[in-house]
């Protein structure tokens, strides 16, 4: 204790000089606590200075002084000095003397975290209900920890409510006090099981790679990883959002109009004065739209119907899958409120129907039958890769659990053409051009895949991206622009060079009018629904009739857990495909993987996967047709500091490589394989017949905090066609990781060939520096040298901000980008949020990146040649290479002010083939309580290889919204937008220079209601367009729109309205006028009869000439509040039989006021 140490020191101490000091405690070495007591002795006439880790000791630290008069010494004790994790240095100096220091190492005690739901883990999926989660953090002994700890929570669905302890960090943070914490999770609107993760994230902590959860996102590490002491402490639990059997609700309208055809001023503009209907005389037009939801027995019914248009049609007349507008599709940039919209009935036709219930089988997925838009997650299970299908479709889908047997089926009519493009990134965020134009809106699935540079065919990691927060897409042009740069390369912890690919699948509008459809089914027997112990076996069938082409896919798969962290996965798939080059082609694919703990401290993994050259599936993870790969890995922890790794891998390539095309062939518009005439698959090239056998063995030794790895690798290649891949080489690999401090780690790796050089694995040296700048965020600098082989003398340099993220987690940060009564989080994130990762101050984040590839990485691989191309179609990603060039980026984002957010980023890529610059700046916030403003500028050129000569596309958006929260009588919206080259596509390169266009769009509208009787509305808009078809020819035009409306309510039953509209284009002598006058009377609160007169005219000099029409009309409008048998009728709460009486809890006698008091009150009031 401090007292005994002081007493013993006092009895034995010799006198000290004025500049001398002696540290009695603590002693150097390891300690388990995060604080310590400091005891020092010094001369009574001296003053001492204490510093901890280079910083002066907090003067508020509690201390005690004892004076020894006989020896003229002072013994002073400081209590509970806080220390950091890792190394600590405490230095004490007296006067001008040399400081005396003691080194302490905090030995982090093993911790365990547990999180569980409180009470029933099932809550209704109503978007409002919450479930409480509680957790504990304990020491290895089972005791609760004493210190405060920040816990990061993430969930696959729903959102956490309450205050986020650290809003700058990914996920939701809570503070655990005394080893205990709690949080509340609010349910979403979908009935599903939700996986929740709780973790203690610290600087430099490593995150474990978890097995794939779905076919949309997967992790398949190259090597086994043994648990390490510095891995994050984490735990998982599961809750369930069950079907919300809510009371019934119906809302709709039915309207009947009798009048002249083509004169419905209040209806769709494209039908007003339409040339093909204006002369049809009097018509009877019956329209209806209704939405209904509610309980029907034990099922929840949700339905919608619109007789006049598809449910997903927007105000531009465009119908897309899943009506969820992007920021660029909204009519106004900002609306002055923070409300959100959920689309419950997505459908590309006029009907949406869904019957749903929580399954009677505990833990099973919901039973449902539906018609509308849907995703195919039932056909992309964790056990499926070759049979997996990730699509967005419209039609019928059903799922039903019959005991442990789960039955899923779907049918989709009238499907368009289906395309798969794989795009090599260039280090910037875009624009990336797809192979097709005129995409079916909402049909895309976008992924970022990572695979080994020299081993095409095995995807190591796959991440699904979300439209809006992650990217924006132009469906007409077929372009992608991401929210952050997409790097070309990555270095994994084992020193393997990885490459990234952008994989996009989508439907495109085709010219074939043949009947097309998809129907599919799956039977899955679930052996267990228990959390983290799920197991099943299933069979699936998929058939797609594409008119001129047919596709069929069927197979079987299973998933069985082994022990606590092991599993066995198996799959068989067969496909039949109508190839445009080879006719009807069939093929099989097989996969078997086993992994887990063999005995304590020894883990193993064995795998076999084979894909025949005729197998095809464009809606799943990338693979290389005509490739077989099998092998095994073993990792053993020999001691606390020594581990052993051994592995065997064999690969056979026997398929047909893609035909290599020159740049001239790619840009020849008459070539059927050019980028202007894309196919659904690549043209076959030369046949492959080679093999590779790899044997590796290595040992890893921890030396203090560092670790050294020595590994022997033998690669035996056989090439049965040529001699390019015919060699037997050995390599010695040495790897060193040295933590410089808690946040900084130096990495080095050298790969040295012992005899002849492998064509794809030459001598290579990699140097790197990792800086853990924030929990879960690392700034990585790496440089790699190549020497020889097919890669020649080359080098890759990269600086990147890396975010560690568990796949399948909902790490959305939309709340960061919302402004109360300004705009919601999704709009704010799409307009402003760039998802920067480096937190330099609260609310201030930056992002840095640099990448350099000295020379092109094309040429031969064991899977075929790699050559320059903007994209690879079908499953031909093995033909994509890496282009030389430098790319760098810097971004900054500010969100600290709740009423203001801003961001900016600059990216540039330069290479011998061309440059690309991306610039974006945005700001939004409240200028006053009533005025919200948003500004965004964005500019980028083409990021696709060989398309660098395309001109820049730029856009400027400015939005203002006036909504007074204290006086809602007047509201106004304002929008200005500038667009430069909004329609540039690869075909533009076929024209001479000077081709381009720009648009200016301005619109404003306001509504004023001085009282409940009057309402005035006005709108004005214009669009000025300039098109340059050559350097000496251009054309400009301006289109105007003006609209006014006035409404007067005579009483609660009678109303009058008049409205007029003009659209004009002076340069084309085009004018369109329309106006209408109507009076209405409510026969009942739900039934209105209207009588009016409408008239319009169109003067179109270039096309249809002049036409006009008008006349009186009669309308009946019925508000629908209920359906059959009272479904949807709202029950009115019956009045109380007797008014409630409130009993006073205290009585106050009125105070007597004097004249002086009254005078004082008056004075105060003045």
| Secondary-structure arrangement, i.e. CATH architecture of the domain at 937-1112 | Beta Barrel
Which fold name fills CATH's third level, the topology of the domain at 937-1112?
Answer: Porin
Shape: globular
Q: In whole angstroms, how far apart are the ends?
A: 69 Å
Which class of the domain at 937-1112 in CATH terms?
Answer: Mainly Beta
Number of DSSP E strands:
69
List low-pLDDT spans.
Answer: 1-13, 209-218, 806-821, 825-831, 1146-1166
Percent of residues in helices comes to under 10%
CATH superfamily of the domain at 937-1112: Porin
Supply the helix-strand structural class. Answer: mainly beta
* Average pLDDT number: 86
Biggest sheet layout: 36 strands, antiparallel, barrel
The total count of helices amounts to: 4
Evaluate the radius of gyration.
Answer: 35 Å
Strand content range: over 45%
Molecular structure report:
The protein is mainly β. Among the domains are: 2-106, Immunoglobulins (Immunoglobulin-like, Sandwich); 111-242, Immunoglobulin-like, CATH 2.60.40.10; 937-1112, Porin (Beta Barrel). The chain is built from 4 helices and 69 strands. It has a 36-stranded antiparallel beta barrel. β33 and β34 (497-508) form a beta hairpin. The relative contact order is 0.08.
Describe what is shown at a glance:
This protein has 1166 residues and is an all-beta fold. Helices cover 3% and strands 53% of the residues.
Provide key terms for this protein.
Porin, 36-stranded antiparallel β-barrel, 69 strands, Immunoglobulin-like, disordered C terminus, seven-stranded antiparallel beta sheet, 3% helix, globular, mainly beta, 1166 residues, disordered N terminus, 4 helices
């Amino acid at each position: 204790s401090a007292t005994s140490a002081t007493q013993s020191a006092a009895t034995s101490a010799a006198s000290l000089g004025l500049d001398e000091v002696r540290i009695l405690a603590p002693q150097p070495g390891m300690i388990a606590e995060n604080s310590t007591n400091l005891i020092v002795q010094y001369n009574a006439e001296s003053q001492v200075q204490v510093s901890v880790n280079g910083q002066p000791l907090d003067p508020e630290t509690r201390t005690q002084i004892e004076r020894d008069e006989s020896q003229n010494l002072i013994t002073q004790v400081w209590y509970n000095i806080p220390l950091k994790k890792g190394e600590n240095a405490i230095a004490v100096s007296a006067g001008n003397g040399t400081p005396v220091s003691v080194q302490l190492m905090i030995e982090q005690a093993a911790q365990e975290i547990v999180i569980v739901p409180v009470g029933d883990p099932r809550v209704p999926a109503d978007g409002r209900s919450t479930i409480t989660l509680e957790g504990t953090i304990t020491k290895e002994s089972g005791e609760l920890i004493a210190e405060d700890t920040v816990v990061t929570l993430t969930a696959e669905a729903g959102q956490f409510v309450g205050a986020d302890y650290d809003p700058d960090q990914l996920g939701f943070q809570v503070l655990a006090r005394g080893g205990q914490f709690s949080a509340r999770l609010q349910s979403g609107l979908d009935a599903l099981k939700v996986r929740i993760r709780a973790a203690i994230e610290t600087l430099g902590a490593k995150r474990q790679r978890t097995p794939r959860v779905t076919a949309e996102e997967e992790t398949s590490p190259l090597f086994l990883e043994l648990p390490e002491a510095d891995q994050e402490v984490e735990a998982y639990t599961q809750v369930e959002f069950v079907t919300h059997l809510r009371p019934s609700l119906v809302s709709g309208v039915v309207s009947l109009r009798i009048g002249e055809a083509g004169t419905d001023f209040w209806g769709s503009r494209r039908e007003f004065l339409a040339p093909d209907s204006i002369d049809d005389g009097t018509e009877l037009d019956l329209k209806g739209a209704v939405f209904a939801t509610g309980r029907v027995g034990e099922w929840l019914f949700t339905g919608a119907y619109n007789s006049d248009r598809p449910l997903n049609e927007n105000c531009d007349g465009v119908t897309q899958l899943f009506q969820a507008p992007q920021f660029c599709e909204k009519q106004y940039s900002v609306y002055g409120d923070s409300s959100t919209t959920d689309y419950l009935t997505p459908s590309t036709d006029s009907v949406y129907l869904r019957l749903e219930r929580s399954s009677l089988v505990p833990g099973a997925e919901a039973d449902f039958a539906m018609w509308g838009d849907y995703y195919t997650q039932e056909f992309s299970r964790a056990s499926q890769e070759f049979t997996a299908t990730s699509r967005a479709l419209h039609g019928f889908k059903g799922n039903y659990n019959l005991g442990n047997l789960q039955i899923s089926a779907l049918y989709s009519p009238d499907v368009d053409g289906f395309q798969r493009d794989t795009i090599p990134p260039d280090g910037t965020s875009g624009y990336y051009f797809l192979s097709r134009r005129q995409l079916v809106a909402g049909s895309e699935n976008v992924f970022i895949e990572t695979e080994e540079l020299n081993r095409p065919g095995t995807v190591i990691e796959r991440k699904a991206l979300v439209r809006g927060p992650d990217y924006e897409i132009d469906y007409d042009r077929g372009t992608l622009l991401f929210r952050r740069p997409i790097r070309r390369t990555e270095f994994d912890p084992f020193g393997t060079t990885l490459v990234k690919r952008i994989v996009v699948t989508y439907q495109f509008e085709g010219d074939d009018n043949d009947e097309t459809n998809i129907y599919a089914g799956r039977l899955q027997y679930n052996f267990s629904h228990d959390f983290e112990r799920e197991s099943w076996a299933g069979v699936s069938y998929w058939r797609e009739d594409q008119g001129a082409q047919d596709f069929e896919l069927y197979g079987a798969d299973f998933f069985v857990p082994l022990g606590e962290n092991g599993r066995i996965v198996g799959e068989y798939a067969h496909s039949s495909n109508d190839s445009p080059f080879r006719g009807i082609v069939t093929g099989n694919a097989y996969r078997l993987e086993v992994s887990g703990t063999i005995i304590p401290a020894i883990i193993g993994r064995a795998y076999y996967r084979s894909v025949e050259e005729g197998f095809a599936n464009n809606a799943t993870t990338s693979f290389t047709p005509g490739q077989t790969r099998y092998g095994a890995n073993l990792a053993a922890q020999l001691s606390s500091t020594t581990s052993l790794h051994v592995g065997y891998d064999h690969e056979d390539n026997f398929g047909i490589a893609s035909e290599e095309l020159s740049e001239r062939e790619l840009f020849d518009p008459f070539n059927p394989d050019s980028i202007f005439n894309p196919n659904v698959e690549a043209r076959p090239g030369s046949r492959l017949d080679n093999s590779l056998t790899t044997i590796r063995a290595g040992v890893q030794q921890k030396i203090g905090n560092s670790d050294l790895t020595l590994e022997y690798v033998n690669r035996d290649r056989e090439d049965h066609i040529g001699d390019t891949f015919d060699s037997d080489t050995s390599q010695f690999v040495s790897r060193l990781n040295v933590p410089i401090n808690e946040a900084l780690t130096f990495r080095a790796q050298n790969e040295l060939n012992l005899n002849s050089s492998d064509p794809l694995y030459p001598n290579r040296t990699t140097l790197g520096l990792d800086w853990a700048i924030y929990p879960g965020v690392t700034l990585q600098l790496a440089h790699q040298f190549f020497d020889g082989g097919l890669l020649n003398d080359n080098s890759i340099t990269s600086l990147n901000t890396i975010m560690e993220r568990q796949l399948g987690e909902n790490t959305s940060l939309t709340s960061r980008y919302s402004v109360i009564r300004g705009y919601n989080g999704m709009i704010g994130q799409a307009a402003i949020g760039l998802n920067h990762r480096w937190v330099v101050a609260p609310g201030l984040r930056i992002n840095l990146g640099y990448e350099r590839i000295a020379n092109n990485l094309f040429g031969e691989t064991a899977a075929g040649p790699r050559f320059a191309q903007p994209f690879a179609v079908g499953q031909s990603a093995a033909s994509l290479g890496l282009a030389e060039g430098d790319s760098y980026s810097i971004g900054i984002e500010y969100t600290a002010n709740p009423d203001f957010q801003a961001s900016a980023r600059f990216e540039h890529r330069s290479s011998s083939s061309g440059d690309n610059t991306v610039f974006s700046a945005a700001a939004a916030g409240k200028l006053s309580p009533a005025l919200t403003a948003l500004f965004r500028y964005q500019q980028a050129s083409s990021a696709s290889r060989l398309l660098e000569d395309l001109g820049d596309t730029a856009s400027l958006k400015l939005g203002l919204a006036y909504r007074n929260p204290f006086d809602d009588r007047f509201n106004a919206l304002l929008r200005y937008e500038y667009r430069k080259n909004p329609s540039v596509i690869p075909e533009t390169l076929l024209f001479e220079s000077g081709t381009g266009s720009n648009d200016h769009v301005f619109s404003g509208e306001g509504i004023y209601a001085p009282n409940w009787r009057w309402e005035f509305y006005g709108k004005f808009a214009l669009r000025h367009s300039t098109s340059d078809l050559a350097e000496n020819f251009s054309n400009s035009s301006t289109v105007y729109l003006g609209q006014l409306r006035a409404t007067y309510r005579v009483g609660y039953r009678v109303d009058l309205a008049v409205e007029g509209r003009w659209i004009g284009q002076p340069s084309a002598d085009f004018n369109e006028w329309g106006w209408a006058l109507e009076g209405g009377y409510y026969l009942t609160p739900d039934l209105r009869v209207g009588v009016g007169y409408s008239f319009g005219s169109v003067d179109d000099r270039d096309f249809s000439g002049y036409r006009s029409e008008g006349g009186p009309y009669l309308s009946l409008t019925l508000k629908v509040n209920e359906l059959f048998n009272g479904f949807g009728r709202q029950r009115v709460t019956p009045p109380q039989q007797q008014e409630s009486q409130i009993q006073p809890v205290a009585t106050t006698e009125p105070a007597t006021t004097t004249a002086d008091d009254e005078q004082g009150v008056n004075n105060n009031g003045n």
